[in-house]
Amino acid sequence: MMRSMYSGVSGLRVHQTKMDVISNNIANINTVGFKRSSTSFKDSFNQTLTSATAANADRGGLNPQQVGLGANVGSIVTIMGQGAAQRTDYGSDLMIDGDGFFIVKDPDGFSFTRAGVFEIDAKGNLVDANGYKVCGWKAVEDPDNPGQQKVVQDTVTPINIYEGDNLYVGAQPTKNIEFTGNFDPSVSPQKNTISFYDTQGNKYTMNFNFEKDKNNPNIWNVSIPTTAAGPGGAGGNLEITINNEKKVYFNGTLTISPASIEFDQNGKIKDPTQSIINISGIDLTTLVDENGQPCNMGTTTGTTNGGNTGAINIDMTTVTQFKSKATVTSQMKDGNQAGSMTGYSIDGNGIIRGTYSNGQSKILAQIPLANFKNPAGLEKVGSNLFKETGNSSEFDGIGSEVSSLGSRIQSGALEMSNVDLSYEFSEMITTQRGFQANSRIITTSDEMIQELVSLKR
Questions:
Q1: Does residue 262 contact residue 210 with C-beta atoms inside 8 Å?
Q2: Residue 204 and residue 348: Cα distance in Å, rounded?
Q3: Structure confidence at residue 1 (pLDDT)
Q4: Among candidates 197, 194, 195, 160, which has minimal Cα distance to 358?
């Protein structure tokens, strides 16, 4: 009888533990990134009254006779299923759609979370709701592509949006210009302009003309016209407008190669290999104002001769010659003024890009994810954080690119709890009935003991 009472007590304990787990699940039904837990039971050890015996020639075998001594908690497992998405439209709120965990730096090392409630603090750090810094990979200057950034996938460090040169983007000189549109063969010459930036972000605009060749109607000669008079009344100066307002003059020698473009009978460029016009000898140190005084300007692209004489490529590949309205225009394919940060964005692969007042953008950092062989082996430490354990596998200090895990980061949304309220309520009912049944074991065993004690009367 005492065995049955102890079994009932053990049943009460395990059902109470399960009820505690269910209650915690329900309490966190609206907790961002919360992962519910599931409880399972196992029987306790058994007392063997009679051991099993094998069959022999005289009698058959006998099974063991055992009395169980109650139940124990077998496991409390964290279920890492995906939670539903909640739209917030707040740019720094991030949701992981798939596997992986955000990496944050706490006083004891690294912690991991699915709760992407992030914001930028006063110093530019990307932090979670606990104030812990979100970690990732930083971007550096790409040596193979000047002016561009690339992410170095190395040991994760705290991400700071405002650090270093992130708050601005420097001026980039123009290397390439493209003409698009159509030449009207009945209109010659056709006057156009080209613009380009120097290393200080000054914008230059100068005339650029196309004139039909007298001997071949499919050939257009390229020229840069000079002014009739420049500083002091001297002729032969090339007039350039700076920043759309100031006129300056260049009296150097420009080389245009090739100096013409040719169309075929179908109205398209005859030889695409000859469709790139190179202008060299743009020496900005020779610029003078209307009074003949030197202008202190930046340098151009492709610099030679001390860094002041540059070259610009003009792509004419897509230009056509049809009997139609003349629509040829030029646009810069690269080069820009300096700009200051106006905002940032985070894409599906965790790449953080800064946006700037000059219309440019650049990569600032990338958010990687930590992945574990056994995510359920992580230890919950509160505040939506997990810590690695001996059964979760170790964090390598680097992390994984989001796309390599088959996951995606959604900006402006949060992952909600994966608690299913209908399931938890049904589990609560069965747990309550189990608890009641075990309490009946104790009261019944108590009545049997009372009957035994009453025999003495």
A1: no
A2: 38
A3: 58
A4: 197
- Polymer length in residues for the chain: 457
DSSP string computed for 275-318: -EEEEEEEEGGG-B-TTSPBP-----SS-BTTTTEEEEEEE-TT
Which tokens go with 404?
């390599």
Q: pLDDT band at 248, cuts 50/70/90? A: confident
Q: What domains appear along the chain, each with residue ranges and CATH number?
A: 2-52+63-80+418-454 (no CATH), 85-162+364-415 (no CATH), 176-337 (2.60.98.20)
Q: Alpha-carbon dihedral of residues 242, 244, 248, 249, nearest 10 degrees?
A: 90
Buried b (16+ CB within 10 A) or exposed e, 421-439: eeebeebbeebeebbeebe
Q: Which two tokens stand for residue 163?
A: 């650090």
CA dist., res. 329 & res. 397, Å (int): 52
Give dist(CA 249, CA 245) in Å, integer: 13
C-alpha of 338 from chain center: 25
State the Cα–Cα distance between residues 384 and 382, nearest whole angstrom. 5
Dihedral of CA atoms 367, 81, 107, 151 in degrees, nearest 10, equals -10
Peptide bond into 185 cis (omega under 30): no
On whether the pTM is more than 0.85, the answer is no
Q: Residue 346's closest CA among 32, 134, 108?
A: 134
Which residue's entry shows tokens 């533990």? 17
Query: CA–CA distance from 222 to each of 185, 235, 283 (Å)?
Result: 15, 20, 20
- The single-letter code of the amino acid at 82 is Q
103 vs 99: CA distance, rounded Å: 13
List the beta bridge partners of residue 158.
135
Half-sphere exposure of 400 (CA within 13 A, CB side): 16
pLDDT tens-digit map of 304-347: 433 344 789 999 999 999 998 989 999 999 888 889 999 999 99
**Cβ of 38: how many Cβ atoms within 10 Å?**
16
Q: Output the CA angle 310-311-314, nearest 5 degrees.
A: 150
Give strand pairing partners of 169: 339
Q: Which residues pair with 249 in a beta bridge?
A: 239, 288
Question: Following DSSP, what letter does each residue of 92-129 receive, concatenated?
Answer: TEEEEESS-BEEEEETTEEEEES-EE-EE-TTSBEE-T
How far apart are the C-alpha atoms of 203 and 408, rounded to whole Å? Answer: 40
The Cα–Cα gap between 137 and 354 comes to: 15
Q: Is 41 exposed, middle or buried (0-12, 13-18, 19+ CB in 10 A)?
A: middle
Pairing of strands 85-87, 413-415: antiparallel
The number of beta carbons lying within 10 Å of the beta carbon of residue 169 is 24
Task: Please tell me the distance from the alpha carbon of residue 50 to that of residue 67, in angstroms, as a whole number.
Answer: 10
